[in-house]
Write a structure and sequence with these properties.
The chain has a 5-stranded mixed β-sheet. The chain contains 20 helices and 5 strands. It is globular, with a radius of gyration of 22 Å. The protein has 359 residues and is α+β, with helices and mostly antiparallel strands. The chain folds into 2 domains: 197 residues, no CATH class; 115 residues, Homeodomain-like (Arc Repressor Mutant, subunit A, Orthogonal Bundle), CATH 1.10.10. 54% of the residues lie in helices and 6% in strands. α13 packs across α14 and α18 crosses α19. The N terminus is likely disordered.
């Protein structure tokens, strides 16, 4: 793999073709909400084609869609369960490289910390009001100061908690026994209906907004074999693979294996086992295609690193961990080698400058 050269965004991303996108135009759940309303037979065209709607930013657009939906579902049970329903429909593989980061977490607690650092997938405001409280028996995700809107005051709060519950349910691959959600407000429906939708215990009119996860469940290692073979993980890996420059043969097969494996398993032995060939054969076939195992591994790591920097708010230290590095300094050295001396911090700044200029 040739190193990326030049200290401009074209130099960093130009070799990846479709990899460049002009910033995030929509929050992840907007598409989910649009699809859900369309499935219910609600005509969105009068709203989304209006001049006013087109002039809204992504937060305002989600709020406007929520208000429109609640108005149209005012006399139906779905109106009171709209936010949790949309949160449950937002499966991890809908969230791009962020979904890949969550699926690579070793525990629910680690996943919750990653989610907190990337709350803007649901909403931009309020990140400072959410924190993880670690008790002796539970980990509590507390929302101290949730954003409110006049006509749908609790939509984003309910959406956030529902999405987190959906994520940890998908990560664990089992029922969330002992998980509890507490809401300060009353959504206007039966508690049993709300709980049945989310698959956890629910209480209304509590003292604070919080999601409580039993400590053993939160800290126990996630079942890696389930995650790396789950539909969400495989779908996301294929999406990431499609962004990389095309190349047939064993190189493409090796990329697929490396993307699908957890960082600690991205090695020659795992690759040979997955590809059912000896190490000698793998190295010979890669050499015939003008590359080697380390070059392909670096290519995959760099692709993920660039995507994490561009699409998420994860720290350089977090990204290093997700890529399998023992410390951030080692990752920084590798990143500079891959990208012609450009460090991760500057790469992220240049990405954001380019995204701002393109909007």
């Amino acid at each position: 793999m040739k190193p990326y050269t030049g200290r401009n965004i074209e130099g960093i991303f130009g070799q990846m073709g479709r990899f460049i996108r002009p910033g995030i135009k929509r929050l992840a759940h907007e598409e989910v909400l649009r699809g859900y309303l369309s499935d219910l037979g609600i005509d969105l065209q009068p709203l989304v084609n209006s001049v006013r709607f087109k002039g809204l930013d992504r937060i305002e657009r989600l709020d406007s869609l929520a208000e429109f939906a609640v108005h149209n579902l005012a006399n139906q049970p779905e109106g009171h369960l709209l936010a949790p329903k949309i949160g449950q429909l937002g499966r991890i593989n809908r969230f791009g490289v962020f979904g890949h980061a969550v699926l690579n977490c070793g525990s629910i607690a680690e996943a919750m910390r990653v989610i907190l650092k990337h709350m803007w997938i649901v909403q931009e405001q309020g990140r400072r009001g959410v924190h993880l409280r670690e008790g002796l028996n539970e980990l509590e995700l507390v929302y101290a100061n949730p954003p409110m809107t006049p006509r749908t005051p609790h939509f984003r709060t309910e959406l956030f908690f529902s999405a987190v519950i959906a994520f940890i349910s998908e990560l664990s691959g089992r029922r969330l026994k002992g998980v509890k959600l507490e809401l300060v407000h009353d959504p206007g429906c039966r508690v049993s209906d709300y709980a049945a939708l989310l698959g956890v215990a629910v209480s209304f009119c509590t003292e604070e907004y919080r999601l409580c996860v039993p400590r053993p469940m939160a800290l126990d290692p996630l079942p890696a074999s389930y995650i790396t073979h789950s539909e969400a993980y495989l779908t996301q890996c294929e999406a990431l693979l499609s962004q990389m420059k095309t190349r047939s043969g064993v190189t493409a097969q090796l990329r697929r294996v490396l993307l699908r494996e957890k960082p600690e398993h991205r090695n020659v032995d795992t690759a040979c086992s997955a590809l059912t060939m000896s190490e000698r054969t793998l190295r010979r076939r890669l050499n015939d295609e003008g590359t080697n195992f380390q070059e392909v591994l670096d290519e995959v790591r760099n692709h993920l690193a660039l995507d994490y920097l561009r699409e998420t708010e994860l720290s350089v230290s977090d990204i290093a961990t997700l890529l399998g590095y023992s410390d951030a300094s080692t990752f920084r050295k590798a990143f500079k080698k891959w990208n012609g001396g450009l460090n991760p911090h500057d790469a992220r700044l240049e990405v954001r400058v380019r995204s701002t200029q393109s909007q």
